[in-house]
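Study this fold:
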Amino acid sequence: ALLTPVASDPVGLSFRLPATRRLPPPTMRRSSSATRAALKRWMGPGLGKKEWKVFVDLQCKYSKICWRNMPEIEAEFGGEYDFSYHLTNIAYHLNAFPAHCSVKVVERNTPQLRNKYISALYENQERYMNDSTEAFTRKQVLKIFAEIAEEVGVFSPANYTGLSEVPHQDSFVAECGNFKDVVWHAWAEQKYAITEFGIAGAPKHVIEGELISDTESSWTSKEWRQVLGPGPYPLEDLK
C-alpha cells in the first residue's frame, strides 16, 4: 500500500503508518532514539519498517534526477522502508532557500500539493537558476515560484485550506517572507540536515539514522537493491 502523507512537521513531511501495524505498549510511545530501538526489538524482525530520509536541494540538477527516480525506488522498497523527503540548501545555489520558503508556504496552505509543487519546481528549474535570475530582485524571483504554485493549483478554492492569506500571486510572494510561519521552518529543516546528519550537499540519503556515502543521483531501484541487498541488512555494513 502507498504511504499516506500527513501534515508536515518543522523539519519535513512525515508519513502515516499503515493501519494494520500493531501499537507498542504505552511506555514505548515516545520518539527518542533509545525508544525507537526498543520498539524495533519489541516488534521483532520483519515487522517494523526502516527509515529512509531523502534530502534534496531545489536548485540542484542532481537532486532533480534523484527526485524523478524516487517514485520507482519507493515502489520497490516501500514494503521495507518508510520514506520521507526533506529540503536542504547548497550555499552557492542562490535561489534554493527562497524556493525552500515557497515550499513551506505550500505546506502551510495546501499540504496535499507539496510533492506536486516540488516536482513542478524541478520541471521549471531553469527559470530560477543563478544565471537566469542574475539581474532579478528578490521579489521577481519569488514571483517565479508564485506562478508555478498557481499552475499546480495552490490558489484553487478546491485545494486551499486558508491557514494563511495566500489567495493570489502577490500574497504568496509576501507570505514567503513570513519569518514565524515560513522562514523559520525552512531554516529549521536546513539546520536539521546539518546538525543531525552532517549534510552539506545534495542529494543525500539517510537510512536508519546513517548518512550513506558514495551514492549517485542516477541510481534507480536496481542500484539501490545491489547496495542494500535482498532484504533487511545489518546497519554495521553502512558504517
The two ends are 31 Å apart (CA to CA). The longest helix spans residues 179-197. The chain has eight helices and six strands. Helices lie at 33-43, 61-77, 96-109, 114-123, 138-151, 169-175, 179-197, 221-228.
